[in-house]
Specification:
binds zinc ion; 10-stranded mixed sheet; 865 residues; 36 strands
Length: 865
């Protein structure tokens, strides 16, 4: 009885609350004229509410697709990845029952046109269309739309739907970011009011830090399609490469005041792509527009969104030879179930679902209608006739210590053929990434060669070129991502044929995990040059070893151990005598490092193993600042660098709790890029931080937080940011003051540095740079730099010649001159502690990682030096 009463009460309120939503449901009926197979439940029947009334949890979205796969022979639904939080990422393959019977042969035939441009397809063959939803978790209408789209395709009984299914294989990934999406849905449900509140400022529309956009580690998965740092991306690209769709669309949302963005977008464009890409983007855009015009859905095209950066879901498919596209519905995090726009319109979740649904269906329709011409485009894009430039190959010297293997494995994951030289060879016209000069250069047996005469040439050239052509400097993302620069490799490209026999690389490379001279009697050592040496250090500490780090380095039997190399003396680890030999083997295997044993401490050159210059280093307690005031992206990268790559536990401290923190509990404080930090840290706290540094603390500021550590911002150190003397004559008017209003945005773009690669010199005799080469490409986003000064140690500075300083990307002449010779990595000693400045990001998106060792050194070694 009580239950019934409650049910009645709920129904009563639901009717009132949802009146507005009901209106939207009536206006945005998906397909009033279509009939459906009654054995197949609609999303509304399955979920118990109309799409747009509610947000659907991840497990329910998955369950709906599983239900479709259970009751229909037109759809399969399979897992491709498991997220960090244990959720399943799945993809649906939707096509006619007949095609499903022959699915494997259809897939093989499709791969054949991807890899052999000479092969043909006939009109009866299906085209492969891939639709991706909800890569940004707080752009949540799209997973709802994915359910309706799948339902229409699987259950629609009309002839048009049947025709589409026999002529296409539609792959639907309903949720690319399950963790972020569920984050949003849980948060939204916990914040919503009973009485529908369309005021965008209400709690219901005001998501808390860090928001559901990103994945578990606060990474933007829509920047990870190329770099594959996360399991979601790795699993997805694995399936993507098995299917190689001709058409791909990525569904997003933007601010709720914006109308729907549909193709085409704006410049800069990737000039590696075939010219016809623009034409096809327009054809698909107009397909959606036909639907929008009918339903009075407002939209925009061409003025915004470029597809230059290759790691988006809207650009990666294009460099794989397909037509990659973007859809941006207004709504986003603040959209809720309904929100009032700046012109008084009530935008409902129902409409957002409807708009994405209509666009998705129009994509399938246009793909089927144009399939033969789309195959021609696709084959052309993967054939040599669309290759631009005259680069014949990219060559990577085989270096086990740096990030070479990362790049080779990346190429293999994208189905790029990588070869290894069978002999030493001399290569004519080998161009240097450092300065662009060409020479005849000697390479060794085992060096890696990536030739461009293969179907993935668009991908290879886009990722490997030192500089892509840029015709417009105002861009949505970074201006360079050249992989040899990002990984700081001594690579080359050549315009001549490679004249050496090769063997293909057939499996993923992994670093040596050998223990050399096992059962050593005197000491074990880890060369700090190795990519994974910091991870080995974390494991050594975890297992209770007393470790020293070499401040000078040493050489024995022709092997040179860099500064920073780890020394585990048997004499100082007697408590481990029983297990040390087996532990070393275990640690080498767990961390992929080579460990070398010695039966004597007498080295051939440099310090002996027992030398006082091999300093004891103890495991530091580390506080990583996060939450308001700090960039969640950089905080996420730093957390990921230590938690995943280094397997070194650090504490993440909310900025709110910092003012009350007992600093003496920590040895290292690590600050991601931050904003308005004087408001976050009280003056009293700043004084306490200074005292803590003088007492031996290591304070590390990265990006804008490094700028904050200067005299004029926080006053924590006397270091100053470089500001060129203003030599302008005040009586004269700056011509820039007459910039036309319409040109002002472009002119501010010219003054920014949109993620460009600067050539930098590194002092690797300083502990901050132990184990690093003496040069690197630093990725710069701001114009900030320190003026070198004898009051601090300059560890990294940009090349002194302004004409030489830029390696890749866009920078104005004025900004080159401002940066040349300035410091971006420096250490300022205070009392017995240090303040470390890292003005450039050291591990951007975990692919621009040439500087990552600096932050590992700052955290793990610096407190002992
Ligand atoms: Zn988005």
């Amino acid at each position: 009885m009580k239950k019934l009463f409650l049910l009645l009460l709920i129904t009563l309120f639901t009717v009132n609350v949802h009146a507005q939503i009901q209106e939207a449901i009536d206006r945005f009926e998906f397909d009033p004229d279509i009939t459906y197979d009654s054995d197949i439940p609609s999303p509304a029947e399955f979920l118990g509410y109309e799409l747009g009334e509610e947000y659907t949890f991840h497990h329910k979205v998955m369950a709906y697709f599983e239900k479709l796969a259970e009751v229909s022979d037109k759809i399969t639904f399979q897992q491709y990845a498991e997220t960090y939080e244990g959720r399943s990422a799945n993809y649906a393959v939707i096509t006619s029952g007949q095609n499903h019977v022959n699915l494997e042969s259809i897939r093989q035939k499709n791969l054949k046109i991807a890899n052999d441009p000479g092969s043909v397809r006939v009109g009866a063959d299906p085209i492969v269309v891939w639709m991706s939803y909800n890569v940004h978790g707080n752009e949540p209408s799209s997973s709802e739309a994915a359910m309706q789209t799948a339902y229409r395709l699987v259950a629609g009984t009309d002839n048009e739907t049947k025709e589409w299914l026999s002529r296409s294989v539609v792959i639907i990934d309903p949720m690319l970011n399950p963790d972020g999406r569920d984050w949003y849905v849980y948060w939204y449900k916990s914040s919503r009011a009973n009485v529908l509140n369309t005021n965008a400022e209400d709690l219901e529309h005001d998501e808390i830090w860090p928001g559901g956009r990103t994945n578990h580690y606060w990474f933007d998965l829509n920047r990870d399609w190329v770099w594959l740092i996360h399991p979601e991306s790795q699993g997805r690209i694995n399936v993507y490469q098995q299917w190689m769709p001709q058409v791909h669309i990525d569904f997003h949302e933007q601010g709720f005041n914006n109308n729907y963005f549909t193709m085409p977008g704006t410049t800069p464009r990737n000039h590696e792509l075939p010219e016809d890409y623009e034409k096809w983007a327009d054809v698909f855009g107009r397909g959606a527009i036909e639907e929008f015009d009918k339903a009075q859905v407002n939209f925009e095209t061409r003025e915004r969104f470029d597809f230059f950066y290759p790691g988006y879901g809207s650009s990666y498919p294009s460099i794989m030879g397909g037509i990659g596209m973007l859809a941006e519905q207004g709504g986003h995090s603040r959209g809720g179930r309904a929100v009032e726009t700046n012109d008084g319109y009530v935008l409902t979740l129902r409409q957002r679902v409807f708009d994405h649904y209509k666009n998705g269906i129009s994509i399938v329709k246009a793909s089927v209608e144009n399939r033969e011409r789309l195959w021609d485009y696709f084959k052309g894009a993967r054939s040599q006739r669309t290759q631009k430039g005259n680069t014949k190959a990219y060559i990577l010297p085989n270096n086990e210590n740096d990030y070479t293997y990362d790049l080779v494995n990346l190429m293999l994951n994208h189905n790029v053929k990588v070869e290894r030289a069978s002999d030493d060879f001399n290569q004519r016209n080998a161009y240097s990434y450092w300065d662009g000069s060409s020479s005849s250069r000697a390479f060794k047996e085992g060096d890696f060669i990536i030739k461009t005469n293969q179907p993935a040439h668009l991908f290879i050239n886009t990722i490997m070129r030192r500089q892509l052509e840029i015709k417009d400097s105002v861009m949505y993302d970074m201006s360079t991502w050249s992989a040899p620069l990002a990984y700081n490799l001594d690579a080359a490209w050549t315009t001549s044929d490679v004249g050496v026999n090769t063997e293909p690389v057939s499996e993923m490379l992994s670093h040596s995990d050998e223990v050399k001279n096992g059962k050593a009697t005197y000491a074990y050592t880890v060369n700090w040059k190795q990519r994974n040496a910091p991870k080995a250090l974390a494991h050594l500490w975890k297992h209770g070893y007393k470790v020293r780090a070499a401040s000078k380095g040493f050489t024995k039997d022709g092997h040179e151990f860099s500064r920073g190399s780890l020394v585990i003396l048997m004499g100082r680890n007697q408590h481990k005598a029983e297990s040390i030999h087996s532990d070393m083997k275990m640690i080498a295997e767990a961390t992929n490092v080579e460990i070398t044993g010695f039966n004597t401490g007498r080295m051939d050159e440099g310090s002996d193993l027992g030398s006082p210059s091999n300093r004891p280093i103890e495991q530091p307690k580390v506080a990583l600042m996060m939450d308001s005031g700090f960039s969640s992206y950089t905080a996420g990268q730093l957390w990921f660098l230590f938690d995943q790559w280094t397997e070194f536990g650090i504490s993440r401290i909310r900025s709110d709790s910092f003012n009350g923190l007992d600093l003496n509990e920590y040895d290292v404080i690590l600050m991601p890029g931050g904003f308005g930090l004087n408001g976050v840290f009280s003056e009293n706290t700043r004084e306490r931080i200074k005292a803590w540094v003088r007492n031996g603390g290591t304070l590390i500021g990265t990006e804008s937080s490094a700028s904050w550590l200067t005299k004029d911002q926080s006053g924590i150190t006397p270091a100053e940011l470089y500001e060129p003397e203003d030599d302008k004559d005040d009586s004269k008017i700056d011509p820039a003051a007459y910039t036309k209003y319409e040109d002002q945005e472009d002119s501010s773009g010219l003054r920014r540095i949109p993620g460009s690669a600067f050539k930098a010199m590194i002092d690797n005799s300083h502990p901050l740079a132990f184990g690093m080469p003496d040069k690197m490409y630093s990725l710069k986003f701001s114009t900030n730099a320190l003026k070198p000064n004898t009051a601090f140690s300059t560890v990294g500075y940009y090349m002194k010649d302004a004409d030489e300083v830029l390696a890749s990307g866009y920078v104005s002449q004025e900004n080159k001159e401002k940066a040349a010779g300035m410091a971006f990595a420096a250490v300022h000693g205070m009392g017995s502690g240090n303040v470390v400045f890292l003005l450039d990001n050291t591990q951007y998106r975990m692919f621009w990682v040439g500087g990552a060792r600096m932050v590992q050194n700052a955290v793990m070694l610096m407190p002992g030096f």
